[in-house]
Amino acid sequence: MVRMSGRLFVSVSSIFDQTRSAAEVLVNDLRADGIGVSLLVAPRIDGEWRLARDPGTRSWLDTHRDAGHELILNGFDQAVQGRRSEFASLAQHEARLRLSGAIRQMEKIGFTFDVFAPPRWRLSEGTFDVLPEFGFSVAASTRGLHDLATGGFLPCRNLSVGEGFGAAKWWRTNVMAAARRGAARGNTIRLSVSARNLGNPKVIRDFRAAALAALEEGARPSRYSDAFGSTAAQEGARSR
Question: pTM score, two decimals?
Answer without folding.
Answer: 0.91
